[in-house]
């Protein structure tokens, strides 16, 4: 994804698109909380390796294949090769139930791919319940029965800083309203380029200060 597109989205979305585009989706895929049309960001499912890409959502406007809660998925055990849960766990009142149900519908050796924000502003969709540290991620995924749990940081201090500025300036209560348009059009685009390079330079610090986590796990 080109840097210019960042003028319209958050760094969180930039990293999300980047990581998902590099993910290996093959076989039958279940996208928990995903939407078929009017997707955010630039990531689009590739059907080169995936045999099918099915959607589960509680919002009927997204035209899901399964209009239901992720706590009780109406499919047989061992049905999917990959389950994707992108930017969803923080919005669930009982995320541990969704993890256990995801394990159930995965085939043996199947992969769970999940993303979750960390240092990112509260965003209701419709609710925002939690942020997990890596230790919490390992504990909950392990308790659900997953193995080979891997966690990667998605952007560092400067990605976080940019997103905070972006949300702050977009807020209707921002007292910099008179300067907001100038800052967004003239200053933030410059910061994008600077911050991307600074994040790369200070990569070792990103494990403590990050926009969120990219998580993969395998069903035993």
Brief digest:
With 220 residues, the chain is an alpha/beta fold. The protein has five helices and seven strands. A seven-stranded mixed sheet has the order 3-2-1-4-5-7-6.
Descriptive overview:
- Helix content is 33%, strand content 23%.
- The chain starts with 10 loop residues before the first helix and ends with a strand.
- 35% of the residues are buried.
- It has helices spanning 11-21, 95-105, 134-144, 157-170, 177-201; strands at 27-32, 50-57, 66-67, 80-86, 106-117, 146-153, 212-219.
- By secondary structure, it is of the alpha/beta class.
- The chain has one domain: Vaccinia Virus protein VP39 (Rossmann fold).
- A seven-stranded mixed β-sheet has the order 3-2-1-4-5-7-6.
- Mean pLDDT is 89; it is low at 1-8.
- Helix 2 crosses helix 3.
Total helices: the number is: 5
How widely separated are the two ends?
Answer: 34 Å
Query: What is CATH's topology name?
Result: Rossmann fold
**What order do the SSEs take from the amino end to the carboxyl end, as H and E?**
HEEEEHEHEHHE
Tell me the helix content.
Answer: 25-40%
Overall tally of domains: 1
Rg, rounded, reads 18 Å
Number of strands: 7
CATH class (first level) name? Alpha Beta
What is the correct CATH architecture?
A: 3-Layer(aba) Sandwich
Structural class given helices, strands, pairing? alpha/beta
Superfamily (CATH H level) name: Vaccinia Virus protein VP39
Any low-confidence stretches, pLDDT <50, length ≥5?
A: 1-8
Provide the residue-averaged pLDDT. 89
Largest sheet geometry: 7 strands, mixed
What would the principal axes of the Cα set say about the shape? globular
Side-by-side strand order of the widest sheet: 3-2-1-4-5-7-6
Approximately how much beta-strand content do the residues carry? 15-25%
């Amino acid at each position: 994804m080109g840097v210019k597109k960042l003028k319209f989205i958050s760094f969180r979305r930039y990293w999300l698109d980047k990581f998902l585009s590099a993910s290996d989706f093959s076989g039958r895929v279940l996208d928990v909380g995903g939407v078929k049309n009017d997707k955010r960001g630039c990531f689009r499912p590739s059907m080169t390796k995936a045999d099918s890409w099915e959607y589960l959502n509680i919002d009927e406007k997204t035209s899901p294949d399964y209009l239901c809660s992720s706590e009780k998925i109406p499919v047989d055990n061992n049905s999917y090769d990959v389950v994707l849960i992108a930017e969803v766990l923080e919005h669930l009142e009982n995320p541990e139930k969704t993890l256990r149900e995801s394990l159930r519908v995965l085939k043996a050796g199947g992969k769970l791919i999940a993303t979750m924000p960390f240092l990112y502003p509260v965003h209701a969709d419709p609710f925002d319940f939690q942020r997990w540290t890596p230790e919490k991620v390992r504990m909950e995924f392990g308790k659900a029965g997953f193995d080979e749990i891997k966690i990667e940081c998605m952007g560092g201090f400067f990605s976080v800083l940019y997103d905070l500025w972006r949300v702050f300036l977009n807020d209707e209560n921002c007292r910099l309203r008179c300067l907001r348009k100038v800052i967004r059009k003239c200053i933030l685009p410059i910061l994008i380029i600077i911050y991307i390079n600074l994040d790369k330079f200070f990569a070792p610090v990103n494990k403590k200060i990050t926009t969120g986590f990219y998580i993969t796990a395998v069903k035993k």
